[in-house]
């Protein structure tokens, strides 16, 4: 592993480029199951519509459960062993798991490989954002993380195209192959200078995940960070992944597919991540930009659930696109997670936070099932989404502003 390079002022550093490409492959693989859910389950013999939904939710839970485990694993390793170790170790694991995913013959095999892939996918974004945040000047790091996210989320669109053109098995092979190719870029990336300085201090405890829970102020700040990311995964994990089911519940004039809904949502996310990151830089405030996007998201969720009854599939996909813009604060959320904590815990928090938010799908799914059984499909989603958005808005409102914060310190 190379020593730290001289300080640079350009946003387009090797760290930013590699982190962006890594997140591109990460998102491709992360969202691929949502795109090929129906076709892959049909091919494996699951034909009943209710079983397609149930087995799909089971596999999503396995993948997201893996991300919960991987978030802790890679976060701790990122602070103990370095940001680069995680950046490329995670790529290797999820690449091999996705290649194996293209060979599955049973639902159980599919489930366990989604779990392993989830563990691998958990490390990429947090390590990349941490490395970029520590490598760029504090006035520019928001632009760096914006580039990472904007490039990264476009991986979902490639996933849709490959899944449609080449079939679900080949789509997994392509994702795994892209990840392995990305490993070749490792030689051009330097380790974080801030991490190197802390690593040289034997008295500093690095990657101590439990220390987040031994200090009430630190714990409160961490929990509020986690809550900010939950609305995005309500939108992606419930509203968009179950687009065919919502389409039928809303009485659309034609069938819609989850793959195309994901495509349009993530196309919107590209613009959302760009706009939210830019606004946070222009306004010199992460929190103000987050509040604006949460309100925007609430409006779009309401439109999705209550204004599309009897609409055409084209209109539905257009709303998915704008809904994607409204939740395009993902990189901003992870940037805040990195900026709120010291160097000895930064990778831990920046990696666990997005994965615990993603992993919230594990809790959102049974909550949605329970609410939809009691209230109905659409009202149940409205209640769940409303709670997630209100809690996230409260969390942002009570979190310290982190724009321009000096990150060279330890907890």
UniProtKB/TrEMBL annotation:
Gene Ontology molecular function = carboxylic acid transmembrane transporter activity
Cell wall biogenesis/degradation is among the record's keywords? no
Which branch of life, at top level?
Bacteria
Q: Where are the transmembrane segments?
A: 12-36, 56-77, 84-104, 110-131, 143-163, 169-189, 222-244, 256-277, 289-308, 314-338, 374-396
| Recorded topology in the membrane | Multi-pass membrane protein
User: Which Pfam families does the annotation name?
Assistant: MFS_1
Please state where this protein is localized.
Answer: Membrane
Main subcellular localisation? membrane
Q: Which GO terms describe its cellular component?
A: plasma membrane
InterPro entries, per the entry: MFS, MFS_dom, MFS_trans_sf
The answer to whether UniProt assigns keyword Ribosomal protein to this entry is: no
Could you tell me the keywords of this UniProt record? Membrane, Transmembrane, Transmembrane helix
Chain ranges of the Major facilitator superfamily (MFS) profile domain = 15-411
Against SUPFAM superfamilies, the record matches this protein to: MFS general substrate transporter (SSF103473)
Protein name according to UniProt:
MFS transporter
Lineage here is: Bacteria, Pseudomonadati, Bacteroidota, Cytophagia, Cytophagales
